[in-house]
Amino acid sequence: MPCTRQELETRERQTLAPYAQFSADSRGRKYPEPPPDWRTQYQRDRDRVIHSRAFRRLEYKTQVFLNGTGDHFRTRLTHTIEVAAIARNIARALQLNEDLAETIALAHDLGHPPFGHKGERVLNRLMAADGGFEHNHHSLRLVEELEQKYPAFPGLNLTWEVREGLAKHHTYYDHPDQRGGFSAKCSSLEAQVADIADEITYYSHDLDDGLESNLLDEAVLEREVRIWHDAADTVRQTEGVLPDECRRYFTIRCLIDSQVRDVVETAERLIRHSGIGSADDARVQPMTLVQYSARRGELNLELRDFLYANLYYNPQVHEPNERAVHWLEELFEFYLEHPDQLGEQSRKRVETVGLKRAVCDYLAGMTDRYVALEHQRWSKPPKPPAAV
Taken in order 35, 39, 45, 49, is the CA torsion positive or negative? Predict the structure, then answer.
C-alpha cells in the first residue's frame, strides 16, 4: 500500500521537535484545494516550485560572474540547489521540518532579476516613484500571481508558511520591508534555517568561484581571512599535501562544515534556553534563534569585507556587470515606448498593474542571455529599404 499523507504527518509528530512546523498544522492556502494523497503540504509546495518556469530560468541568471563566462561558475540555480541541501542538513540536525526548509530555500531567489544584485538595484531605481523593486517581494508576486499554471487560481497557491519564509527572507544582502499578512516578529525556525543556509552557501561558493577565476589568491586569503586560515590549517593537519584543486575544494568543504556545525550548536543552545514549545512560540521571540555564534559572526564579517574588496568590486567582475545592467536600463525605456513588443502575458497585465510595473516584471523575468539577445535585437539600426 502507498504511504499516505496522514502517515507522513504522523511520522512528523513522532520524529520532529515540538517547535517544528508540522505539515498538518499549516495555516493553509489562499485558494482551498483538496489535500495531496501521498505528499505532505510542504512536499507539494516543493514540487510546485521546482516545476515552475521561474525556477527553470535561474539556470541562466547571474550569481557573481555573468552567466556564460565560465563552465564551472555558479549560476542562480546551482546556488539555489546548494542552499536547499545545506538547509535540509541543518533542519534535520535540529529536528525541524526538512521539507519546509528545503521549499523556502528552493524558492528564495525566484524573484531575482538578470545580473544579480546589480540588476536589482537598477530596477529599483527605475521604479523608485512606482513602488520600487525588491527581489524577495518579487518572489512572492511570482508565486502568488505571475506564474500561470493552474486553471483555478493565479500563481502557485503555496502554503502560508512558505510564503512567510519568502516575505521575511533576511540575510546581510537582503532586508525586505514588512509585508502585510506576516506580522510576527520572526519567521518559522525552518525559514530561519533557509536564511542562514543562504549565507553559508554564498560565502563558500563565492570563494570557490573567486579562486577558480584566479581573482582570489590562497596565500592572501590565508594571511588576511581567519576563517580561511583555520580551514586551510585543518586540511594540512588532517590530509597533508594535496593537489591544488583538491586542496581548494577540501578547504571550502571544511569551511562549510565548520559553519554548519557552529549554526547547529548555537541554534540548539538558543532554542533550549528560550523554552519555546511550538512553531508559533518561535515567531514571537525577540530575535531569531537560528544564528551564528558571536565569534563566527565576527569572522564572517571579515570574510564578507574581503570578498567585497577583492571579488565583487574587482574590475573583471564589476565592469562587465555594469555594462550588462545598462542594457536593462535601455530595454526599460524601449518597452515603455513600444509596449506592443512586450510578451503576451505582460501586455495583458498593463491594464491591471500599469505599464511601468508590467515592463519591470517582464525584465525581471528575463535571463541574462535573453536580455543580451533582446538588447541586440532592438538596438540594431533598421535596415535600409531594398532598392527597386
Answer: negative
pLDDT band with cut points at 50, 70 and 90 for residue 321: confident
Could you tell me if residue 388 is inside a domain?
no
CATH number where 226 lies = 1.10.3210.10
Cα-based angle 366, 170, 154 (whole degrees, multiple of 5) = 45
Is residue 353 situated within a structural domain? yes
pLDDT tens figures, 9-68? 999 999 999 999 999 999 999 999 999 999 999 999 999 999 999 999 999 887 776 665
Cβ-Cβ contacts under 8 Å for 97 (sequence gap 6 or more): 12, 16, 20, 21, 22, 23, 42, 91, 190
Residues 6+ apart with CB under 8 A from 300: 199, 203, 227, 292
3-class SS of residue 13: helix
- Residue 297 domain-assigned (yes or no): yes
Q: At what angle do helices 294-307 and 244-274 cross, to 10 degrees?
A: 140
Residue 369 near residue 67, CB atoms below 8 Å = yes
As a whole number, mean pLDDT of residues 325-352 equals 93
User: Does some domain include residue 385?
Assistant: no
Beta bridge partners of 62: 75
- Do 374 and 329 contact (CB within 8 A), yes or no? no
Predicted TM-score of the model (pTM): 0.91
Alpha helices in the chain (DSSP H): 5-15, 41-50, 53-57, 76-93, 98-107, 116-126, 135-141, 160-167, 189-212, 218-224, 226-239, 244-274, 279-283, 294-307, 315-337, 344-353, 355-364, 368-379
223 CB-near residues (< 8 Å, 6+ apart):
229
Task: State the residue range of the domain holding 47.
Answer: 5-379
Number of domains in the chain: 1
CB atoms within 10 A of CB 146: 24
Residue 64: which of 220, 173, 138, 226 has the closest Cα?
Answer: 173
